[in-house]
């Protein structure tokens, strides 16, 4: 699974690779590329075009749809569903930050402190992947059940009073509230944060810590000035790998949330599969795609790690 | 492929050249490596020596010219059809195969069924009989090196190509392996073409050394020849250290050229001058640091007649055990290097002392003054 | 103060272990509740210990059918994606060609795209083409989104491979085909295996894209999704637990085997 963290170079031009040897078959690379690239063109790129075209169509299921360049669909969709968009960004953003806060200590533990337990912990991080994530998400219904031990403990500690006041929970319930959805999102995408973090932490030479200590840095300073900056590649790819799928997710909002916690993924799903309003669904999906691509590009620029994702 | 050392094992390159786009890696080159010799291509990285080797192996297609093995033109043959094998830099042992299978690889590819006996014999030759079932990463660097040699030699190639085969080893092991390779070569009698950037390695092992620079062969000859009588400043500097004095031709007397430098006169045997030396012309006079004797200026009278002499002041001296190395500031050359054997050390020879440098004119060599006196200094290791 | 100091030094360990607990808690719950005997249709509250579900894992109609369908799809999707992805990876590492940047982007984008977007747009394509939704549309979709991950895994491996090894093979009388079979493929194998394993896991567990493009066909994740609305049979937990145990055992066994092989050689 660590391959997730080694995504190929992005849209940015490639760093000069060692010159591949010259071969006699000039068309060989194209033959090798042909089937796979064709597959991606037909079943990934072409659908994007279809979707763009669908989003500016009008009509109905019975009479069929026609391209009428009806851009108002976008406006209508945004004005009707902007709360879901805001929620998606908010929930996914919160989950990403939580993943970073929770995942960093574990990645650090595996990289520097686990010793001979390293492999075992690594397996325990990856193994849940092999149990259907839907089953595991359903388990949160049990964990967060009304009147269960978790909710009971939170209630006794008056945590729920605070979260209710913030609007994260409702009364003495956790299920069907934003907190439950964020909790599920955090849980589901946590490994995607831990693995890239671990990969970049593991590359850090342990002697750098000693050198920093030798040069009068206290442990906390060493972390701020040496460890954390060097793990930035992992932080960047981890946050991307967490945020992107979280922002498009609708499973957690559906299973752990309520109608008040619906995210944009839920809307797209409903419009497409239940309401069958294809133009609106396509427009929403297109907006989500554009927003995410824009954010990813800006984020990669800002963090100055174009060669890392 | 099967005849071990039959006639026609010469490697002949005629007009061979390699260009990558606008960059010329190897300029058109003629070279003959005689059957059974240990031949070294010596040069700094990027000088074209490895490219030349790869063209012999067939791993690189020459842009022009022909490669002959004996009488056979192999230029168009792919590597797997050439009776030539290579010991690669950092060995390129197959990590997924054990030592036995690595060594057996070439035999098996040529369809031999019973390889056991041959492989075992070969492993004995390189003293690795015990390690046959280990994987390459379990061996030390020196052992891996010997596997690489065994893997190539077992095929009885007409020519064995060695691409910096000792580069990854530490100094002590490298010396040991140099002798080992030399022994193997003498034993099997196969032509060895050895690429290296280490002049000591080339001089220790090879019968003939070709010094390459910027895609050309600068000079070719026996190691002593190259060292004692270099024909370019590059060769002079790349193989050891040289001192150069710019001098003007004053006169010719029989077999010697008399030169003026600063206020004094220097004598150079004409046979050792590779530059055109007309009267009044400029010549770079070279002399190796260990050929020079150092005498304190007070004793200048005791220096025998007939030696070339130069005056100067010691700028620096460092004691390195077997010898003492002096840097002498002289009017004709600012940093004259002198290596003096520590036989009888003169306590007056300390920095600041006025000295006379003198040497036998037979150790002088003359080079074309039009070239850079420092060529090859940076490249030498 | 020794306790405070100890606590300070091991704070990161404690925090990491808490996170690990958070990650594993649902698996514990899934396992425990596979021994439950629920009262109603939903298996969310503990009632009493029972082995009923373990004795009859296929006792719920449609469950094992969906499981077998998911396994089939995962198998073929893995095969397809691994084959196509390996070819692309070799082309990317070994050759220079035009449009390299475009190819890289085309491979990167599916990994940077929310699943729901790919799911929705692929459905528009299928609807426009009038394709019959079912096994084949699911398989097409799965190969599509697994492909990029295989390329990444194989590419990393092939890139770290010394090109001199292939030259050595050619120097030792192996022709192009022999070189590929005897040297290139065996060395690239771990990368290809990692890619295939990843593809299998991704395909088997995919819900969002499958849900859009399955029509009335029901894969295992879709069965679980459906049961979340209608009632969750205990058998789901049995299968979830089995999968977890099998996965952990598989990894442990391969690790022990690897260790033993290394020790043997040393």
Main beta sheet of chain B: 6 strands, mixed
SSE order of chain B: EEEHEEEHHHEHEHEEHHEEEEEEEEEE
Largest interface: A-C, 96 and 99 residues
What percent strand of chain A? under 5%
Overall strand count of chain B: 20
Detail the poorly predicted runs of chain B. 1-6
Along the chain, the helix and strand elements of chain A come as HEEHHHHHHHHHHHH
What's the count of strands of chain A?
A: 2
Might you state the CATH topology name of the largest domain in chain B? Rossmann fold
Q: Kindly, what is the distance between the CA atoms of the first and last residues of chain B, rounded to a whole number of angstroms?
A: 38 Å
CATH topology value of the domain at 93-262 in chain A: MetI-like fold
Query: What global shape of chain B is seen?
Result: elongated
The major sheet of chain A is characterized as: 2 strands, antiparallel
On the 0 to 100 scale, the average pLDDT of chain A is: 85
How does this model look, in words?
The complex is a heterotrimer of chains A (309), B (381) and C (266). In chain A, 45% of the residues are buried. Chain A has helices spanning 28-55, 72-113, 118-126, 133-143, 149-156, 159-166, 178-202, 206-214, 219-230, 232-248, 251-256, 264-275, 278-303, and strands at 57-60, 64-67. A two-stranded antiparallel sheet of chain A has the order 1-2. Chain A is 69% helix and 3% strand. Chain A has a domain at 93-262: MetI-like fold. With 309 residues, chain A is an all-alpha fold. In chain A, β1 and β2 (64-67) form a beta hairpin. With 381 residues, chain B is an alpha+beta fold. In chain B, 21% of the residues lie in helices and 35% in strands. Chain B is built from eight helices and 20 strands. In chain B, β17 (323-330) and β18 form a beta hairpin. The longest helix of chain B is centred in the middle third of the chain and has 18 residues, at 171-188. Helix content of chain C is 77%, strand content 0%. The longest helix of chain C has 32 residues, at 63-94. The radius of gyration of chain C is 23 Å and the shape is globular. Chain C starts with a helix and ends with a helix. Chains in contact: A-C, B-C.
